[in-house]
Amino acid sequence: MSRGPPPGIKLFRGKEWSLQTYRYIVLLITFIAYVCYHASRKPTGIVKSVLCPDANKRTKYSGWAPFNGPNGVSKLGEIDLAFLACYSLGMYVAGHLGDSLDLRLFLTMGMIGSGIFVGVFGMGYFMNVHEFWFYLVMQMIAGLFQATGWPSVVAVIGNWFGKRKRGLIMGVWNAHTSVGNISGSLLAASVLDYGWGWSFVLLGLLIMFGGVVVFLFLPAYPEDVGFCYIHGDEEEQRVKTVGAGGGVVEGERERENQRSVDGRDGSGGRGRSIGLYEACMIPGVITFAMCLFFAKLVAYTFLYWLPFYLTQTEIGGKYMSVKSAGNLSTLFDVGGIFGGILAGYMSDKLSARAITAASFMYLAIPAMLLYRTYGSVSMHANIGFMMVTGLLVNGPYSLITTAVSADLGTHKSLKGDSRALATVTAIIDGTGSVGAAIGPLLTGFLSTRGWDEVFMMLVLGAFVSGLLLSPLILAEIREKTGKTRPNGQQNPRDAASQPLLQEER
Q1: CA distance 152 to 154
Q2: Measured at the alpha carbon of residue 441, what is the angle toward residues 439 and 445, in degrees to the nearest 5?
Q3: Buried-most residue among 68, 174, 270, 348 (CB within 10 A)?
């Protein structure tokens, strides 16, 4: 089925644009899209101290039933669980749909739906709703819509970029996660004094606006704007433009004929989408998915509870206001931006995704312990340890959800005849999101017994995350030390154990 260029590009394109121009557009639009997704998740973390203020501290906020009772903190944890559980379950369905439907329309629908239900959650303030089930249901539906985002944007990036330098490109691009967290925190905190409901309404409108931008300007597939899809590495991806008369402007006729044989025409025929079981059988998918389970448990505990933790912790002999804590928490994500870029760059240079991810997770353990122990000494110490922790926690999370997912979604075992980018991304990030749901939920209970127990949970999660990558680390080490058979050929068992084999040259 022919799709053609998005309406905004049709309107503004005065002449044919180059492949590089479209790639810049794709990077920018998908960056904006996921900034909006992550920003819309921040109000819940920002308003926790408003909905459930500390009874032992003087505060101008009186709380909001049903969250201001003795079980308020636990109820807030259940709200987080409701969102993230539906998000993780919806991810598996969304991934398969993303490989089957038009990604631009699918992403648009998810963003507008997310905005509606994030806004409706905030409307509970204006409608004076105090029923727990209302907030629970709104978060559950919002979680389902939010699941459309990540598989779709990673699949779009995978459609336009080969594997060479993918770690660095996606590490820089993945700054949208931290930029979204930072902008969401600042925007939600900026309107808090007008009523906590405004935090949700404002961010709901933001993601709906992002959905309109995606609909108007995102070319989800190269063939939508006249380029032929060719599976392979950057060197092989000599993408050709189809002229007005149907002739090939760039590239070789032989390559064009091969493209036609493969069944990838310019109207969007891109092979069949694979099922969940087939995607799970791609080497490395399950291992990285389980690693991300614990990595996201750690990352999302900070995402949802760091502002609340800052209001509950004496820093330099003083307690922070809710608004100040929300603003300060953004520095964790500033560190995360550098972490994602550094992890991507290192994994490209070393050609070792697993070694890079595990190293970051192990280093995050002492960083978190130092933050808990010495973060209360002074504001400067808190900021320093917070940023280092954010760098080390978000680095592997960023790497696995972007470059690793895209690598596996275009794994050479697929032979280019299947569409797996969104499905593989959904399996990895969906499994990770189960951990993301469990972490904040456990924090809601453990924090009532003391924050030391919360940090012990985070340390254990980081350790297990790194440990799970051990088989892949050994495989990468064997590859780098050139462990071969006497005749110079690689041992087949070693080759089968490598999830991210050297990409086809």
Answers
A1: 6
A2: 110
A3: 174
